[in-house]
UniProtKB/TrEMBL annotation, chain A:
It comes from freshwater metagenome. It is found in: Cell membrane. The chain crosses the membrane at residues 7-28, 34-53, 65-81, 87-109, 121-139, 159-189, 220-241, 306-324, 345-362, 368-390, 420-438, 445-464, 498-517, 548-567, 579-612, 624-641. The keyword Translocase does not apply. Keywords: Cell membrane, Membrane, Transmembrane, Transmembrane helix. It is a multi-pass membrane protein. One of its GO terms (cellular component) is plasma membrane. GO terms for molecular function: branched-chain amino acid transmembrane transporter activity. It holds the Pfam family BPD_transp_2. InterPro entries: ABC_transp_permease (IPR001851), LivM-like (IPR043428). This is Unannotated protein.
From TrEMBL, chain B:
Pfam families: ABC_tran (PF00005). SMART domains: AAA (SM00382). One of its GO terms (biological process) is L-amino acid transport. SUPFAM superfamilies: P-loop containing nucleoside triphosphate hydrolases. Residues 265-277 have a biased composition (Polar residues). One of its GO terms (molecular function) is ATP binding. Keywords: Amino-acid transport, ATP-binding, Nucleotide-binding, Transport. This is Unannotated protein. InterPro entries: AAA+_ATPase, ABC_transporter-like_ATP-bd, ABC_transporter-like_CS, BCAA_Transport_ATP-bd_LivF, P-loop_NTPase. Residues 281-292 have a biased composition (Basic and acidic residues). Residues 260-292 are annotated as: Disordered.
Amino acid sequence: MAHYLQLSLTGLGAGAVVAVLAIGLVLTFRASNVVNLAHAAMGTYIAYVYYGLRNFNVASTQKGGNLVLPVFGVPGVVHLIDRPTVVTALAIALVVAALVGALVYLLVFRALRNAPPLARLVASLGLFLYLQAVMELRAHDIGAGAATLPLTSLLPNGVVRLGSVVVPTASFVLAGLAVTVAVVLGAVFRYTRFGLSTRAAAESEKGAILIGVSPDRVGLLNWIIASVLAGGAMIFVAGITSQLNPTQSSLLVVPALAAALLARLDSFAMATFAGLAIGVTQSGVATFQSQAAWLPSWLPNDGLRQALPVLLILVAITIRGAHLPTRASLVDSRLPVAPVPRRPWLWIPLLSGAAVVALYTLDAQWRLAIVVSVIAALIALSCVVVTGYVGQISLALYAFAGLAAFATAKLELAGVGFPWAPLVAVILTVVVGILFGLPAVRVRGMTLAVATIAAAVAIEQLVFNSPALNGLSGVPNPQLFGSNLGFLAPGAANFRPAFGVVAVVVLAASMLAVANLRRSPTGLRWLAVRSNERAAAAAGINVGSTKLSAFAASSLFAGLGGALLAYELPALSPQQFLVVGALAVLALTYLGGIATLSGALIAGFLASGGVLTRIQGGAAADTTTQYALSGILLILVAAFYPDGLSMAVRRAITRLHSVWLRGVRSRGAT
Amino acid sequence: MNADSDEVTDRSIDATEPLLRLRGMSAGYGGVAVVHDLDLHVGAGEVVALLGANGAGKTTTLLTVSGLLQRLAGELTVLGVEPPMGGRFAREKVALALVRKGLAYVPEDRALFFGLSGREHLRLAARRGDGEAIELALEPFPALAAIIDRRAGLLSGGEQQMLAIARALATRPRLLLIDEMTLGLAPIIVEQLLPRVAATARSTGVGMLLVEQHVKAVLTVADRAYVMVQGRIATSGQASEMNADSQELAARYLGAIPDRHQAGPSVNLSESSSPEGTTPAERREDGGDASG
């Protein structure tokens, strides 16, 4: 028992970092209505700044003191001072953190203060992708070699003995710091004019302006505080893990989001408590898993530790039926336009025909690109249904696709034949999709988005990371009525067009189904629920079952995409279905047009390795730069074209059409 | 009509510039005007009512004056400031600048902070260290003072309305705009609230512009009134005279939705060409309209 206590208390340190991150999330949400997915990524960048300054060896000639810059196209580092002390480096890093917070607010989120929640989420996603890419590049510049930066701890090395329990002092120091931050901020928000202004602006921006409180200034100050807190937390993260990695560190935002949600994005005390509890539970669960011999062997090593606390919070949020405090803004935010598809029976078969012709005339690399795009479009289509039409932000879709892929491969390798293996896999995915849709009956908006990220993390940690699923290969080619529909073949015949035709047919059928659903009573119910759940319920719509129907439909399409992936990829590995991939799917679909059929097609076209990559000349030269660019593009689209590229094109066509009509009319008149 | 010469003569007539002046102002949403060519003014210590049927453009007018909406054309002078047109973040800046100049606006939705107590509302609204302003704001509402430490979300509709007005008063305004002060309030509260607020305005020299549906109630406390029909000012005059004629006023301007073809705004404008009791400047302008 003492052993468990010891390991649990050790977890206080990690918990403190989660707690401080959660506090920052609460701050930025209250100040500008943004659930900032890039919060931990911003902090990670600050940690890179700190270690760039401190990265020197007293014995060697290294001088350290290099300031890491977060911008492309300029030198990666600027030399500031020789061999700064800990205090100097910390001070510089935190000043940079304040600047970053101010810049992020002024350049990105100020313009989005009155944008729809989805646009804000997507913008923070863009920021996440951008910062991550920058850090990948900069890690080399500050002499870390690889992107993963080895760290030296800032914290005391000693231990505290409580009877037989030995706990590192650092854990207590960190926990104490987290609690102090929470108490101070709590007092500031309760008693000072600044705190009152922030709370007032969060309740009603209009009301704040009318008594001379500038929501803009309030937002700026809170972003600065949050950024400094995130920077501090990530610098101190060295006290627990001894490494900093752009992706892993940035994803610390997931447990922090869970803690912040438990605090209803409102209470600093609750966020701190939840953060610490997550740390302690994770530490305890890890010990438990390492000792419990009866646990099944397919369970991934780190699985329970990563997944359990997040899952517990998911359940807690669902049972409580949490809704975030809706933050009033000056302007009513508008939903993305969800047009009825025009003449789907004409253009979908035409496009499919063109794709089939291309498959049979172009070379192998093109065939691969087309199939990649088609499958990506299918997964994006699932996003259109659940997020575009019903307004439920789901980040678990990609995990569903992965589930279908693994299930198909497992069944095929177990000897189940072609139509049956994918069929069973897709049905399984739909069942799981409905199960994970159950929280959506009770929660909505950002809460649901975070709940689905948590679900995706749980699937990733508990299922995909299982040793039993690593490197599944040798899935037999599908056969139907004696003809080979497989994709892979030896030599020049590889990437067979027959499989491409299957993929195109599946996509076309799915798109026609969605087009019809959009026009059917079901589609109208979806849109009604999207615009106002209460009004929909008052009009006699069963909101719960309407949402579940959308989750079922969307996991069906994601499952179909996943089943195709099982045949398309030479080998399946968990790395292909990480949470970051899910974020990319949402991002691309949003770029294309989240509530339009053609948006899904554009997302497929843009997908990495798809047709666009092929047009650019095959293998993308520099994926890191591409990520950074797509991050910026995403922020721009969220700010200026919240309806996505497809609507921008459609509007341009409509405008040209009306100009043409006017021309015809004026000629007729003269 | 020669706008330049109008302006010159106008200044020479009005030695004291009114707190609020609209001259041929148009405003609306997304570049489409919904109120057209408004001429209106409010002086210090004056209580002015803005009447009209639903959709006449009263709220749009107040929003534009407050700076939360940009005007599309014409002149607007609020407390000596001419709000600029254009700019992405201009609205918020303009509104904030006007508040600092002494404009207070109680919007139709009250825009209260439901999580904050009444006292916190007033503390934020008052200038730093101006405790007296809080007492002053509570003076007309003894009932509110008793529940001032309660969260705004827990107050009844009438209490919320009082808090919204008290919050506006705590900023020590020089010009106070109130949109539908009596919306959803019991008639007995309406009877108490309107005279109290009007008395406060007169005693402190605050100019007030009231948008109201309770025509009779507001005309008994106001000095002057404007009537809007379909985005234009159809008539204006002394409140007491309009009140005496309120039956006809209601029948003519505030009753059933007027038929666009037969009782359009231009017809109404010509009918109002020589209303009795308007200020000299207005009479001249109206005459100009009729002759032009």
